[in-house]
Design brief:
The chain is of the alpha+beta class. Helices cover 32% and strands 33% of the residues.
């Protein structure tokens, strides 16, 4: 898919047209901070990917719960890309925010960084997208009571890209991939 194809597809995808009360991206944004300790290390003396995945899932769940106002469960993790390592005693920041809200599910982007404690500069180590499903007391999917207000071009772009990712996930599921 070329950049031109992607731009055309993004323009053709609908914008949120929602009668539900709206929450902003900022209302559910979640940032967690962790110090990498010995128990977080793998055999190569780097942050264990599974530990980072745990932190990512937890932050995505909190952001989703804040948006939904209730319980969620993780349905899918995709586009989990490890770009850089983290080492012992480094500070890891995990930043999660809602990018798309459907009827019962929502997508959350989670960016992870190593932060230089002297300068505050952040170096990205991971990007992940998770699909969370709002569930009732019986753990059945239930309607999300809030839509998503998109206030910036970045938020509108994430919404469009989330719909493309949703189509790709559905296609992969239908094909058994």
């Amino acid at each position: 898919m070329t950049d031109k194809d992607l731009d055309q597809l993004k323009r053709s995808i609908g914008k949120p047209n929602d009668a539900r009360p709206l929450k902003t991206v900022g209302q559910s944004r979640t940032e967690t901070t962790h110090t990498v300790v010995h128990g977080d290390m793998n055999g190569e003396n780097r942050l264990f990917g599974g530990r980072l995945m745990e932190w990512i899932d937890e932050a995505a769940g909190i952001a989703s719960r804040r948006h939904c106002g209730g319980s969620v469960t993780t349905a899918c993790v995709d586009n989990l890309v490890f770009q850089n390592p983290a080492y012992l005693n480094e500070v890891v920041i995990v930043d999660a925010y809602v990018t798309y809200v459907g009827r019962t599910s929502l997508e959350v982007r989670v960016d992870s960084y190593v932060e230089d404690v002297e300068t505050g500069e952040r170096k990205q180590i991971n990007v992940a997208y998770l699909t969370e499903v709002h569930v009732d007391a019986n753990e059945r999917p239930t309607r999300i009571p809030y839509g998503l207000a998109l206030t910036t071009d970045e938020e509108k772009n994430e919404w469009s890209l989330a719909q493309i990712r949703k189509m790709i996930r559905r296609e992969r599921q239908e094909q058994g991939i």
